[in-house]
């Protein structure tokens, strides 16, 4: 296909310009940032991070409650196994956003583990 014939078939607003290749390429969009939408993009990022933290907090509270239940149950039977499980679930809950329930699960689990290791062997 010749250049002149290609230019006639080219359906763009720049029909009068001559090109050496049968395609047009624009690299300005890849090289420069879109300054106008920067504030909008930043707002979207903060909205997404807040949604993630809210969702993770709800997910973490389940881990925290389960860890607290296991830590309390460890006072009555299988103290070493259940207290370690409660401590691990407490750390998972804290990482997922449930700081209160996770901290309580860790604390109660540590107390139960210390009692099981140092006090129960004497009884």
* Low confidence ranges: none
Proportion of residues in extended strands: under 5%
What's the helix count? Answer: 5
Report the helical percentage: 55-70%
Global mean pLDDT = 77
Structural class: mainly alpha
The oligomeric status of these chains comes to single chain
The arrangement of helices and strands along the chain is HHHHH
Sum this structure up briefly:
The protein is mostly helical and 123 residues long. Helix content is 69%, strand content 0%.
Which SSEs are present, and which pair or pack?
Layout: H1 3-9, H2 28-31, H3 38-73, H4 79-95, H5 99-119
Write structural notes for this entry:
Helices cover 69% and strands 0% of the residues. The chain is mostly helical and 123 residues long. Helix 4 (79-95) packs antiparallel against helix 5. The chain is rod-shaped, with a radius of gyration of 31 Å. The relative contact order is 0.11. The model has no long low-confidence stretch (mean pLDDT 77).
Short descriptors:
5 helices, 69% helix, 0% strand, rod-shaped
């Amino acid at each position: 296909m010749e250049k002149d014939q290609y230019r006639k078939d080219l359906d763009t607003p720049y029909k009068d310009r001559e090109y050496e290749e049968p395609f047009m390429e624009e690299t300005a969009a890849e090289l420069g940032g879109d300054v106008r939408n920067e504030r909008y993009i930043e707002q979207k990022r903060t909205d997404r991070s807040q949604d993630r933290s809210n969702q993770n907090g709800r997910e973490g509270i389940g881990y925290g409650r389960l860890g607290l239940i296991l830590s309390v149950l460890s006072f009555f039977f299988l103290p070493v196994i259940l207290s370690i499980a409660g401590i691990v679930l407490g750390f998972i809950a804290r990482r997922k956003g449930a700081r209160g329930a996770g901290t309580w699960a860790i604390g109660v689990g540590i107390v139960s583990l210390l009692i099981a290791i140092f006090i129960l062997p004497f009884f």
